[in-house]
Every structure is written in C-alpha cells, then in structure tokens.
Hints:
Distance between the termini: 54 Å
Radius of gyration: 20 Å
Helix content: 40-55%
CATH architecture of the largest domain: 2-Layer Sandwich
CATH topology of the largest domain: Beta-Lactamase
Strand content: 15-25%
Structural class: alpha+beta
Strand order of the largest sheet: 6-5-4-9-8-7
Number of strands: 9
CATH class of the largest domain: Alpha Beta
Shape: globular
Largest sheet: 6 strands, antiparallel
Number of helices: 11
Order of helices and strands: HHEHHEEHHEEHEHHHEEEH
Amino acid sequence: MNDRERYFLNQPRRVPLGLEAYAGDRQFATTLARGLELLRCFSATDVQLSNAELAERTGLPRPTISRLTYTLVILGYLRPSAKYGKYQLGSALISATYPLMASIGLRQHARPLMNALADETGGAVSMGIRDRLNIVLVETSRSRTGVRAAGALADTGLSLPIAGSAIGRAWLAGVDAATREAVLNEIRVKTPEDWARYETPIRQALQDVATRGFCAVDGDLVTQIQAVGVPYGPSASGEFLVFNCAFARPPASTQGATRLHHDIGPKLLAMVQQLKEQRG
C-alpha cells in the first residue's frame, strides 16, 4: 500500500468508491456524484436495496446514505419498496433518460432490419453505446420464433462489460486508437481480474474486426451464450454505436463456433452495412 492509498484509507470518505481520484478536485460536485452513484447500485438482480446495502456498495457513511435516499425519494428517482426499509428505482429516471433515447434516431430506422435478423437467427439483435466500462443496450429485437430463449439473452437497458462481451470488443475495435487505448488502460487499472482473463481474447477480437469486420464470443462471459459484434460508428448525436447478435449455444453441438464465424457474423455485418447505406 502506497502513501496515497494510506491517506485515503484513513480519511472520512467524501466520494463514492471508484471516484477517489476526484476527492481533491474543487470542480467536482461531490454531493451530485454521491446521489448518481447511489442510483447506479441498483441492477436487474438488485432491484431493492436498503441503506445499509447502499452504504456497503458506495463506501459512504450511513447518515449520508439516509439523506441521499430521503432526497431521491422526494424527487421521484427512488421509491420505498413493499419490503420495509428497502428502496427501488423511481419513475423519474424514465423521464430523465428519454431525451437520450430519443436523440438516437438510428434506433427506429434500424428496428426493421434488427427484427428480421433476430427472426432469421432465432436470437436477439441489439444496439449499444458505451457507459464507462460497459456497453448499455439502447435497442433490442428478439426472435418471435424463439421468444423464450431470446428473451433471456438481452433487453433494452442491459449493461454488458466491454472486456467480456462481443459488443464491447467490437466497440473497442471501432473507436479511434486514442480512445481505445484509454479504455484498455482503464480496464487494466480498475478491473485487473477482467484484464488478466480477457486481454488475449480482446487482442484477437481487434484483429478479427480488422480482417473480417466482426468478432465473436463463445461462452466467454456466460457459458451458455454465444454472440457476435460489429461496430457501426458515430450517431448523429455523437455516440459511437455498436451492434451484436446473441443466442443460446446449441446443446451438445459442435457446430456452434462454426455458425458464429460463417453464418451469424457475416449476416450481422451485412445488416450493419445495409444500415449505413440506407442512412447514407
């Protein structure tokens, strides 16, 4: 442990975990950061959290958490859950995020092509943008012929780690070199376990996108899930968009990886190229 780490360990925590670098930044709005990081603690698997759980996840004192949850409930970003002492995300978040979703006009334009490919492959086709070290899905089309299987693959709002997912690795391959290296360094520093596990597949994915136009993941993140990813490029609003097609691995099949590279990948790449031509 170096002197800087000892200093922060012995100080009352002013910023949430992961944002220690901004503790002395006078331009950094600490209270705002606390409230936003608290909201980010909720997920599809943690839909109800108590003050104690929020304090553990953020590293902030319990009294601070109590003030934040009280304020966020008043503003509609949180609401008390049916389970005593717990909170859930509130409907105000939907209103807050709608302008971003509406600004990505490509979502509506891409939907027919995504629907068609989802039905053809029996999987789920998604569009995503970066959120820190994740890709958040902003549009998803699921196969109507395999609804139950496709429904478990993806949904709008789901976040996937850049390092471990096909859509994340395709994003890395598509952005400019400076942005790519900055994010790779962030993965290396902030999530060393992911870096140790995924560095080699990431490097392979960068090469695959350069030569084939797509990259593939065969159970890297979730054993039962296969996916391919293709970068699209910047949207009209400046967000770098990327697409994937994910589906459940065929049971007891040796053709899964072959299908990824010779069927699904080329079809997703063709869909993205068609979309680019239509948008001209």
